[in-house]
Amino acid sequence: MNLLLLEEADFVAHDRVVLSDRRLTHMQEIHRAEVGDNLRVGCIGGLMGSATVLRLQAGEAELQVRFEHAPPAKLPLTLVLAVPRPKMLRRLFQTVATLGVPRLILLNSYKVEKSFWQTPFLQPASIRENLILGLEQARDTVLPEVVIEKRFKPFVEDRLPSIAAGTLGLVGHPGPYPACPRGVSEAVTLAIGPEGGWIPYEVELLGKAGLNPVQLGDRILRVETAVTALLSRIF
Amino acid sequence: MNLLLLEEADFVAHDRVVLSDRRLTHMQEIHRAEVGDNLRVGCIGGLMGSATVLRLQAGEAELQVRFEHAPPAKLPLTLVLAVPRPKMLRRLFQTVATLGVPRLILLNSYKVEKSFWQTPFLQPASIRENLILGLEQARDTVLPEVVIEKRFKPFVEDRLPSIAAGTLGLVGHPGPYPACPRGVSEAVTLAIGPEGGWIPYEVELLGKAGLNPVQLGDRILRVETAVTALLSRIF
Fold first, then answer.
1. Please, what is the Cα angle at A57 between A55 and A58, to 5 degrees?
2. Fewest Cβ atoms nearer than 10 Å: which of A29, A62, B227, B230?
3. Is B109 in the same domain as B200?
């Protein structure tokens, strides 16, 4: 936790918050904070700044907060991701938030197992919890938008073309395709497939929506590694 | 497991292997392999090719193997990493092997907690196990070399200069430094710090050894994400 993220409900005055949950535990056990110490804070969806510890007890801390600057810019990106297996999903939400993705669309695909859709990690409260962990890591305050699209064809045919319009549309896909571009300055719509990749029909439909395949070399990457690798290369 | 990695002890003839461990379980439960099926295989430290399942029983499988091509090229890189916390270390070995790092030096640093050195994940058998998982993911056969350096100063003063000589020397470090270069074609020596970063004295000594600080922006990345992000941008 490199930033203490504050919610509206934490405020007891316009410049004071009271904390009593995992953030208090973290302040005490990791930061070993004491009265008078300063910590970095951010307001979810808002500004960042610093806080001074006014009062620190076993079950509660009171902090005085000052907000001074905007959070870091997001990437100019819509990320479309085939739903990965549940054990990857939690870390993926964290990574996506850490890297500054503003909008994540989780999509079905032929090789996504039906059971993946049943995971509790797709519940809104769980998604939010993991996005917040990622924001705390990066020092950002703005939650990415997460959209869930359970049907591939209607999404790719009806909604993706307008999302991709005016952006550089890319599909991460192993094979004899151009190398993924570097240091792009325009907005990007990037789709990343499931383990085992998109099937040819899906690549074709993504292409009709304006997303063209690019590759990163012979090595097969885990989804989370592929997301980080593609975004670091593109932006 | 995108590649079945074979060890010398698996061979019962020059073109036949017998498997009975987690690789057999994986073949049966994930690939749902049957007699006559073909699988991608590689020989640790050697060539890659394919195998045909000759015999498949509850506790044992026999495969006929053919080796046809070389594994993918490694990156022209020596990666120097401050030892991360144990729970990150396992995945880091996997990621480093997946990304094609040929040589990893794990280094002490002021902000590395002493307890991190006690983890069983630094035992040679555990390191090898996780490197192999990373190679299986990427489809590579060549184990990265892993060197452990428990003392920062003698390593950086006495041994690092000759490692970095003739390479582009970089230290990933947040701050007012040049942006990390993109698409480098020369050999690189890259040092990545612990959570909380290198201390100024360490950055100074790394500089004297020929490694200069570069940054990736305002966002603070977990070590594993930083490794993937830096390597994807540099190469």
1. 160
2. A29
3. yes
Instruction: Single out the residue of B226, B191, B215, B30 nearest to residue B103, CA to CA.
Output: B191
Contact across the interface for A225 and B183, Cβ inside 8 Å: no
Which of the residues B228, B230, B231 would you substitute to probe the A interface, choosing the one with the greatest number of A C-beta atoms within 10 Å?
B228
Contact B190, B77 (CB under 8 A): yes
Closest residue in B to A216 (Cα–Cα): B232
| Closest CB from A183, A216, A220 relative to B182 | A183
Q: How far is B142 from chain A (nearest CA, A)?
A: 13
Q: Do B49 and B94 fall within a single domain?
A: no
* Closest Cα in chain A to B101: A219
The beta-carbon neighbor of A232 closest among B2, B139, B232 is B232
Cross-chain CB nearest to A228 (options B72, B183, B229): B229
Residue A65: how many other CB atoms lie within 10 Å: 22
**Which residue type occupies B72?**
P
Tokens of B125: 């058998």
- Residues spanned by the domain of B15: 4-69
Specify whether A63 is located in the same domain as A167.
no
Q: What does the alpha-carbon distance between residue B179 and residue A219 come to, in Å, rounded to a whole number?
A: 26
Distance from C-alpha of B234 to C-alpha of B29, rounded to nearest angstrom: 38
Q: How many domains does chain A have?
A: 2
**Predicted ipTM of the assembly:** 0.95
pLDDT tens per residue, range B29-81: 888 999 999 999 999 999 999 999 999 988 999 999 999 999 999 999 999 99
Check if the beta carbon of residue A102 is closer than 8 Å to that of residue A6: no
Same domain, B29 and B142: no
Amino acid at B109: S
Which residue in A has a C-alpha nearest to residue B232's C-alpha? A229
Question: If you write DSSP's letter for every residue of A129-189 in order, what string do you get?
Answer: HHHHHHHHHHT--PPPEEEEE--HHHIIIIIHHHHHTTSEEEEE--SSSPBPP-S--S-EE
